[in-house]
Amino acid sequence: MPNPTDAVRLSAPEPALGVGVRLSRFAHRNARFLFPAPAAITVALIIIYPVLYTGWMSLQEWFASSLTLPKFIALANYQQILTGDPRFREAFFRTLYFTFLAVSVETILGVAMALLFNREFWGRGLVRTLSILPMMATPTAIALVFVMMYHPTLGVMNYLVSLTGLAPFKWTYSSRTALYALALVDVWEWTPLIMLIALAGLAALPREPYESALIDGATDLQSFWYITLPLLRPTIIVAILFRAIDSLKTFDIIFVMTQGGPSNASETINILLFTQAFSYFNMGYASSMAVALFAIVMGASLILMKVRRVGW
Amino acid sequence: MVSGKTLRKWLRTAGFYALVIAVMLPTVFVFYWMITLSLKPQVEAAGYPPSFFRFSVTFKGYQEVFAKHPFLLYTWNSLVVAVGSTLMGLAVGLPAAYSIAHWRQRGLALTMLVARIIPGISYLIPWYILFRNLRMVDTYQALILTHLVVGLPIIIWVMIGFFEDIPPELKDAALIDGCSHYGAFWRVAVPLVKPGIVATSILSFIFSWNNFLFSVILAGRNTRTLPIAVFNMIGYEEINWGPLAAAATMITLPVIILTLIVQRHIVTGLTFGAVKG
Q: Which 110-139 residues of chain B touch chain A by CB within 8 A?
């Protein structure tokens, strides 16, 4: 039987709560919306709004240097990109080629290094630490060091080349070699990332397949080809995915070292787009290129994510 | 007798270490070259053939950097922007990461991932137009806000992992004891993820410190950050390599020190939690 005093207390009207208490109760009940609210507002302001604005701007013709207002021209910018602009087409293929070149070298080297380092040895920690430095070091500073190393007559690279008996290169100073010289910087910076991702993948591999392979008399090469590589494939593809996304967008090292030159030989989409926007102030046209670049990066990511699921 | 077996084992180890050194040599060499160039007098820095080990040491390059350029101002600018965007990123990102981990809100997390994929330059055009109209080009505010785009996704993604690792019993106990969600977040969760906060702060700081693309457009005479300053020096100094290398060394040094502190978390940060380092 309930205690009569309790009944009295229950039926009594709730005492009026202070504003502060009510506010904090409201906040507690709606915490799941209030916690992420500042981030959501920030994201809307500095990410979503600019992206939508770029999409809208890509349908206009507008020079930020002139006093005329933007003129709506629908898809004319895109038509120009796709059919009427050889400079963009060249930049497009150059971007793909640069990315393909850099990322494939990084993947082969990175996985090979991971296999080499995937054992206990004295100095393993030091190797890991050193590997992290190229990708964290300020790209502008690294680009600057490579500018000095690539100098055709005074640079250390040509000295090293001359030691092997080869003729000197002009590195970033010639339109024939500039893109390769830049890809080499990218390889130097980012091979360690693929190596570290592959190392993490190797550490997570199960032991049993190797034990049964050993019993069945498989050679090292066979167990690498038929066990390690297939099991490691998803990890490698994640690594390629991250690299491809960033490599397609490479800006710092190219801009600092060649600014797209000599004679456009290293002008990727990102560089061309930057020139259009901030040298010619052709904002509408540049915006449509930005949308195109986003589509390319997104397309590459989707293809790689598909590849991750299907077999070879 | 020293058996052939021991000898072979010894040779294999030696061969392995030779390979390790060969593989790591390019990584080390670029940094070595940067530092030694910064310490060489001009005649030797631009001398041919280059001297690898025997050279005279001078700090003239460093002196010139400070004498000819307002390098302290650039450093201060870089610091203000990096610290500002990191603090703001933490203030906004920590509750969001907690909320994503606690209530499994995938939408915001995915938006941050997409933000990572979108080319930075497609933000830059609208920002430039916006900040120009607001007369905010060349202000710390504009730089801090834009650098958030690099820092915030990393803070949120790395912190989700840390918040998810908190045993749910701890939060539940706090909530049952009459703690509000704010209490559970502030008094239970945050103290438990302090190492994560340190790691993500450093990552966010480094990415802001290194940022070139946003600052080259939005920083001006008063707010120019170090990467832009160094970029401008390349044209100014021509082949006066001592000061150039000195500037490169001074920008890189803080990053290297910070990297050593958080090295365990860097791969996680760079791959958005996809790979635990």
A: 111-112, 115-130, 132
